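Suppose you are handed a protein chain with no further information: no name, no annotation, nothing but its sequence. What can you learn? This example shows the usual starting point.
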Amino acid sequence: MIPPLAAEVVDWGSLLEVIVVSLVGGVGVTAAFSLAVLGAVRSVDSARERRPVAAGVFGAVAIAALSGCLAAIVYGIAIMVSK
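A reasonable first move is to predict its three-dimensional structure. Written in C-alpha cells, the prediction is:
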C-alpha cells in the first residue's frame, strides 16, 4: 500500500509514463542501432562474396535502421527544445 503522503507528492501516472517511454525508447533505439550495425557488416561481407543482391538488401536495412536512430535523436532534441 502506498503511504498517504507519497500519494499526494508523487504523480504516479506521470511517473509510469516516463518509465514506459524510457524503456521503449531505450530498447527501441538500441535495437535499431544494432540492426544498422548488423546490416552494414553483412552488406560488406556479401559484397566481398560477390553477392550484390544480398549486399544491397543488407545495405538498405542498415540505412533504414540508421535513419530510424537519427529520427529518434532529432525527435528527442525537438521535444527538449520545445519544453
